[in-house]
Design goal:
357 residues; mainly alpha; Endonuclease Iii, domain 2; Endonuclease III, domain 1
């Protein structure tokens, strides 16, 4: 072989080796690139899963918080005291949510039984203001605000003797009326009210007291309470008189937890037939004045102690309780009240209160 051929062959071999080396390098780079890409894709996928898991966890946490919200609200809605109520609730038109654990049906039965018991204790319960006609009753009721019926009854004879009709009182000298009404307290405001309502009666109703609620409440000084006193006792039209005694007792007996007089009226009206409303008012008010006092109720001498969920708030000892009863002229006026002992058992104590034992 010639030297030229040998050199050519060596060059060809060197070129082939170089070509194989380049191909190997490319193959290696390709493999590395593919592995790197796969690794990057895997990392990206893992990161995506982690992000999705975090989002799902956050969403689940948020959902759990939303689901727990009603439970927290439910705890707030369930008050420990029967008088608690949510703000903004509509006036009660039916027995829907009585306070405590008592069912609506049980509440109606207990409330009506209490009224029947009080009807036996106070069969002649009536408005304790002296009056002879609707005009005298509406004036006396307006004057009874912030004072006692006894004080009003001591004042009105002189007033009605001097001004017997709405026309007379409408034309009266305010200073003279103030002197007559001074013992009632707030005599200037009350003078303005009775003269104002007298003028309204003369100008708008021909000098007669109207027999409709919507007309009565238009008179100066006359609200729903006064209007129902007049309607129930002068016109025989049923109405619930929500005075301070009535409000206090119906909450103490857990007939309602409302505090607004209009809502109390609606709630109690749903417990009784309309025909009972006027007498019910008298029974409750008389009981509040004579036995179930605001600060020291005479629980030990109370005829409805077994039905009262508040039994024990006052004096339970029979002898001490009897001293808390408010008698007038040797007894409760205008009704046949049995002596307190008649409502006690053989052992000298009332029957166990509602829910006891």
């Amino acid at each position: 072989m010639t030297r030229a051929a040998s050199a050519k062959k060596a060059a060809s071999a060197k070129k082939a080796a170089s070509t194989r080396q380049t191909a190997s390098a490319k193959e290696t780079a390709s493999v590395k690139g593919t592995a790197s890409a796969k690794k990057a894709a895997s990392a990206k996928k893992a990161a995506s899963k982690t992000s999705a898991a975090q989002k799902a966890s956050k969403k689940a946490s948020k959902g759990a918080a939303v689901k727990k919200a009603p439970a927290a609200k439910k705890v707030a809605v369930a008050p420990k005291k029967a008088t608690a109520r949510l703000k903004g609730t509509a006036p009660a038109k039916a027995v829907v949510h009585p306070p405590g654990d008592e069912s609506p049906t049980a509440l109606v039965r207990r409330a009506r039984r209490i009224n029947r018991e009080l009807a036996e204790v106070f069969p002649y319960a009536h408005p304790e203001l002296d009056f002879e006609n609707p005009f005298q009753l509406v004036v006396a009721t307006v004057l009874s605000a912030q004072t006692t019926d006894l004080r009003v009854n001591q004042t009105t004879p002189a007033l009605f003797a001097t001004y017997p009709t709405p026309e007379d009182l409408a034309a009266a000298n305010p200073e003279e009326v103030e002197e007559i009404l001074r013992p009632c307290g707030f005599f200037r405001a009350k003078t303005k009210s009775v003269i104002g309502l007298s003028k309204a009666l003369v100008e708008d109703f021909g000098g007669e007291v109207p027999g409709r609620l919507e007309d009565l409440v238009k008179l100066p000084g006359v609200g729903r309470k006064t209007a129902f006193v007049v309607l129930g006792n002068a016109f025989g039209r049923p109405g619930i008189t929500v005075d301070t005694h009535f409000q206090r007792l119906v909450r103490r007996w857990r007939w309602t937890g409302e505090t607004d007089p209009d809502k109390i009226e609606a709630a109690i009206g749903a417990l009784f037939p309309k025909s009972d409303w006027t007498d019910l008012s008298h029974h409750v008010i008389w009981h509040g004045r004579r036995i179930c006092h605001a600060r020291k109720p005479a629980c030990g001498a109370c005829p409805i102690a077994p039905l009262c969920p508040a039994y024990g708030e006052g004096e339970t000892d029979p002898e001490k309780a009897k001293k808390l009863l408010k008698y007038e002229k040797g007894g409760f006026p205008g009704q046949r009240l049995k002596p307190p002992q008649a409502y006690l058992d053989a052992g000298g104590t009332p029957a166990p209160p509602l829910g006891a034992g």
